[in-house]
């Protein structure tokens, strides 16, 4: 950076760091194939929910013991994962998954230059400790990054006092008990607003990075044919004039000569805001289309809510629709939803080829675009 004594350090959670880590892990993965790619995706991106000790299948608040059927489904999902990876128990699973985020966190710990938010992440992990869901050895490494001579950390003392007062007034807790619980509540909130926010960024953007790398490495699509996060009006075949204020960018597109032959959206989950985003994207692409045929339009996801999958499969704008949804692992999807009344509808999507697997995607693309 001109005029300063030191260039700004790249974020350990940024794109350069993520892609470098994923490429390193890919090089160490051995003979990765379309059939085993799902394992690599889950090793890199799936994580353990610190509040349940189970693999994260669904929103945490809906997957707590006794609250809904998503807790027993999370147990089933975790057990199936353990079996699929050939592991013995949940501890081995915890050590096997969440590799990308853990690597980013380790880079933060090892960094000589840390922004203020980096220090907050480290402190939040230390405060949450075992409740973080992170492997014990990683938590220990983070704890070692905090200087031994530093004062004992009190998270947001004023907020702890506010929470403790509420607990005393509303729940009639003893003062000491209210303060202990208030500290835990504040620590959990800090962890959510620092570490978990970083995780969500790494998850969403890292999923895009990873799918792109798998398309290059396993499907062997030439890099020159793939356009990543390029605005639609810069792609061949989307040159029609538009007065739109916002031009959408597909997560990646595949180009053939002077045509765009495939548009892909990559979304780990399909909450309502993301379904709205898909609708906006499709509407934009249709409006800008100048080539004769609309490209194949696909979605790659890890969504386990059948209603969201069904709704998304039915999405259409101006006679165009999502041609196919690719899911990371259809066997695990069916196992987790075995008791769900809509699993029958999910199987109908599979029978009609509207819902296919990551393995199918990589095999198909390897034949068509290699």
Distinctive features:
alpha/beta; 2 domains; six-stranded mixed β-sheet; two-stranded antiparallel ribbon; 14 helices; 10% strand
Brief rundown of the structure:
The protein is an alpha/beta fold and 370 residues long. Helices cover 52% and strands 10% of the residues. It has 14 helices and ten strands.
Descriptive report:
It is a single chain. This protein is of the alpha/beta class and 370 residues long. The protein folds into 2 domains: 15-152 and 198-205, no CATH class; 219-369, 3-Layer(aba) Sandwich (Rossmann fold). Helices cover 52% and strands 10% of the residues. The strands form 3 sheets. The chain has a 6-stranded mixed β-sheet. Strands 1-2 form a two-stranded antiparallel sheet. It has a two-stranded antiparallel sheet with strand order 7-8. Helix 3 packs antiparallel against helix 12 (330-336) and helix 11 runs parallel beside helix 13. The chain is globular, with a radius of gyration of 23 Å. It starts with 14 loop residues before the first helix and ends with a helix. The model is unreliable at 1-7 (pLDDT under 50).
- State the fourth-level CATH superfamily of the largest domain: Type-2 restriction enzyme NgoMIV
CATH topology of the largest domain: Rossmann fold
Query: What profile does the largest beta sheet have?
Result: 6 strands, mixed
Q: What's the end-to-end separation, in Å?
A: 41 Å
Work out the helicity level: 40-55%
Rg over CA atoms, rounded to whole Å, is 23 Å
Strand order of the largest sheet: 3-4-5-6-9-10
Overall 3D shape: globular
> Given the helix and strand composition, which structural class is it?
alpha/beta
The total of helices stands at: 14
- Count of individual domains: 2
The percent range for strand residues is: 5-15%
Low-confidence spans:
1-7
| CATH-derived architecture of the largest domain | 3-Layer(aba) Sandwich
Number of strands: 10
CATH class of the largest domain: Alpha Beta
Q: Mean pLDDT, rounded to whole units?
A: 90
State the order of secondary-structure elements, H for helix, E for strand. Answer: HHEEHHHHHHHEEEHEHEEEHHEH
């Amino acid at each position: 950076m001109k005029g300063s004594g030191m260039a700004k350090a790249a974020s350990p959670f940024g794109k350069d760091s993520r892609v470098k880590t994923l490429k390193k892990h890919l090089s160490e993965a051995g003979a990765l194939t379309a059939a085993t790619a799902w394992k690599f995706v889950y090793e890199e991106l799936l994580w353990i929910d610190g509040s349940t000790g189970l693999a994260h299948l669904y929103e945490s608040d809906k997957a707590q013991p006794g609250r809904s059927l998503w807790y027993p489904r999370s147990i089933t999902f975790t057990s199936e994962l353990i079996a699929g990876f050939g592991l013995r128990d949940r501890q081995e699973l915890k050590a096997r998954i969440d590799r990308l985020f853990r690597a980013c966190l380790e880079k933060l710990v090892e960094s000589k230059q840390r922004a203020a938010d980096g220090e907050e992440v480290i402190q939040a992990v230390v405060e949450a400790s075992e409740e973080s869901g992170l492997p014990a050895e990683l938590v220990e490494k983070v704890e070692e990054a905090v200087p031994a001579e530093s004062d004992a950390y009190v998270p947001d003392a004023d907020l702890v006092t506010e929470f403790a007062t509420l607990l005393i007034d509303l729940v009639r807790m003893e003062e000491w008990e209210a303060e202990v619980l208030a500290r835990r509540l504040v620590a959990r909130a800090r962890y959510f607003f620092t570490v978990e926010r970083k995780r969500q960024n790494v998850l969403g953007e890292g999923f895009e990075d990873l799918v792109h790398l798998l398309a290059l490495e396993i499907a062997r699509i030439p890099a020159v044919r793939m356009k990543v996060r390029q605005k639609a009006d810069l792609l061949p075949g989307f040159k029609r004039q538009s007065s739109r204020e916002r031009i959408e960018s597909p997560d990646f597109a595949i180009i053939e000569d002077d045509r765009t032959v495939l548009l892909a959206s990559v979304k780990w989950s399909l909450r309502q805001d993301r379904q709205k985003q898909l609708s906006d994207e499709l509407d934009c692409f249709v409006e800008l289309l100048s080539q004769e045929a609309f490209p194949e339009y696909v979605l790659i996801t890890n969504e386990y809510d059948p209603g969201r999958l069904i709704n998304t499969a039915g999405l259409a704008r101006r006679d165009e629709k999502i041609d196919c949804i690719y899911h990371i692992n259809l066997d695990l999807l069916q196992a987790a939803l075995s008791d769900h009344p809509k699993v029958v509808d999910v199987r109908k999507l599979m029978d009609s080829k509207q819902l296919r697997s990551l393995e199918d995607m990589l095999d198909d693309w390897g034949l068509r675009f290699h």
